[in-house]
Design a protein that fits this description.
53% of the residues are buried. A hairpin with a 2-residue loop joins strand 1 (9-11) and strand 2 (14-16). 38% of the residues lie in helices and 22% in strands. It has a seven-stranded mixed sheet, sandwiched between helices. The chain folds into two domains: 9-249 and 451-470, 3-Layer(aba) Sandwich (Aldehyde Dehydrogenase, Chain A, domain 1), CATH 3.40.605.10; 253-441, Aldehyde Dehydrogenase, Chain A, domain 2 (3-Layer(aba) Sandwich). By secondary structure, the chain is of the alpha/beta class. Helix 2 packs antiparallel against helix 5, helix 3 (81-92) crosses helix 4 and helix 4 (96-117) packs parallel to helix 5.
Length: 478
């Protein structure tokens, strides 16, 4: 087994320790894995200075050279896949197979954005003779980025790749509870030859770090993935100093099961995706609206599949679902389950902590929930499935749109008419039909309503990190 890495700050191309640290816990047994450094204001000032110098150099570096560094870093992370995956599983709890896939997913973000770096096209606007209107896309500057704990590798990769590919420098505050993924990314970028200051990694108290970085002059943009509440808080602070934001916020994804599909197969697919990452995914399928004729069959199969999920330490290759990441998630799931039960919902399976050591919680299936159940309006962010019957597709779409969230939505149907109604009617940034995969590197990803704005990935992703400059050039002075 690979050793858990030493967690340090990475500023201006150098590693550094701090006097103050926070413990990093293994959620499977609650033991201490290591210590996470807490950056001081002096550390943050150094990061800001380094990022400003890094931007001055990197923004003038050719796209092909930027791409080469990203591709080399991705190749190094692929070579180190097992070491990185074991670190992620130990600090987060997810099964080792999922951690390995997360490493590859992070590499794919680097590889896609490396290609997009060479395709940042401007345009020439037709005009009268003697004048040219030329549109340029230029990197915005230093990015202050904040990544969550649920995907320690792929979430930082997504923001780092977009910023670096576009020619920006970046200061990223990764999650203190799951810091190893970002440290491994820093190692790969360092070894790939990224110039000092282009990438800087800090840890600390989230509110303190963001409050200090956002108003500082070198920072020109804020990028965040996390809860809607924190996203609003960050957006407010960025607005005070007129800095643009990229916000990928919470979701509460609906799943519509139409009456023209096999309910058993739909349930089988749904349980696999619901248990992925212990349900700690902003796009996790959670609110299931099933046509009434399929409801009983869907529930029966879902429950049987959920009961069969093997829960345990993520390093055990037989484990299908590990512990939730921290005691806060455990407590939140218990509260939501108790509230739903008190209001008349049926607990078909799960609903209680597994054991008394480690943060293990089973796939919990709640059915026939009343509209005032908190679980229907608050994102559980855990292995909880909420299943209610509906009488029509129109009713399902209405219920899907009833919340202020709109990140991902799903449906199972083979009807072209249903697909058309869902595409036009469901309020979300990402709609997946007959699959519960919400995004890949080559497609744009982001939400609507209170699930944020802006897009990561796809051809649209790099433009979030750029400004548009129009140059009007008249050949003769007049």
């Amino acid at each position: 087994m690979s050793a858990y890495p030493e967690i340090r700050l990475y500023i201006g191309g150098h590693w550094r320790k701090t006097a103050e640290t926070l413990p990093i816990l293994n959620p499977a047994d609650e033991t201490v894995l290591g210590q996470c450094p807490v950056a001081t204001t002096a550390d943050l000032d150094d990061a800001l200075e380094a990022a400003a110098k890094g931007f001055a150099l990197w923004s003038r570096t050719s796209p092909h050279k930027r791409a080469a560094v990203l591709l080399k870093a991705a190749a190094l992370m692929r070579e180190r896949q097992e070491e990185i995956a074991q670190s992620i599983t130990r600090e987060h709890g997810k099964p080792i197979a999922q951690a390995r896939l997360e490493v590859i997913r992070g590499c794919e973000f680097f590889e896609w954005d490396a290609g997009e770096a060479t395709r940042i096209y401007g345009r020439v606007i037709p005009s009268e003779p003697g004048i040219r209107y030329i549109v340029h896309h230029q990197p915005i500057g230093t990015v202050a980025a904040f990544s969550p704990w649920n995907f320690p590798m792929s979430q930082p990769c997504r923001k780092i790749a977009g910023a670096i590919a576009s020619g920006c420098s970046i200061i990223i505050k990764a999650a203190e509870e799951t810091p190893a993924g970002a440290v491994h990314i820093a190692n790969a970028l360092h070894d790939a030859g990224l110039p000092p200051g282009v990438f800087n990694l800090v840890f600390g108290v989230p509110a303190d770090i963001s409050s200090y970085l956002i108003p500082r002059q070198p920072v020109r943009m804020v990028a965040f993935t996390g809860s809607t509440a924190v996203g609003k808080w960050l957006t407010e602070r960025a607005a005070r100093v007129m800095k643009p934001v990229l916000m990928e916020l919470g979701g509460h994804a609906p799943v519509v099961v139409c009456d023209d599909v096999d309910p058993v197969e739909a349930a089988r697919i749904s349980v696999i995706r619901k248990s992925r990452n212990q349900g700690q995914v902003c796009t996790s399928p959670t609110r299931f609206f099933v046509m009434k004729d399929l409801y009983k069959s869907f529930c029966t199969e879902f429950v049987e599949r959920a009961k069969a999920i093997r829960i345990g330490n993520g390093l055990d290759p037989e484990t299908q679902m590990g512990p939730v990441a921290n005691d806060r998630r455990l407590a939140a799931l218990e509260v939501l389950t108790a509230d739903a039960r008190a209001k008349g919902a049926k607990v078909l399976t799960g609903g209680e902590r597994v054991g008394n050591r480690g943060y293990f919680y089973p796939v919990t299936v709640l059915a026939d929930l009343p509209d005032d159940a908190r679980a229907l309006t608050e994102e559980p962010f855990g292995p909880m499935a909420l299943i209610n019957p509906v009488n029509s597709l129109e009713e399902a779409i209405e219920k899907a749109n009833s919340l202020p969230f709109g990140l991902a939505a799903y449906a199972f149907t083979h009807s072209a008419r249903n697909v058309d109604l869902l595409t036009d009617g469901v309020e979300c940034g990402n709609l997946s039909i007959n699959t519960l995969e919400a995004s890949v590197a080559e497609t744009p990803f982001g939400g609507v309503k209170e699930s944020g704005f802006g897009r990561e990935g796809g051809a649209e992703g790099l433009h979030q990190y750029m400004i548009v400059k129009n140059v009007s050039h008249r050949l003769e002075m007049q």
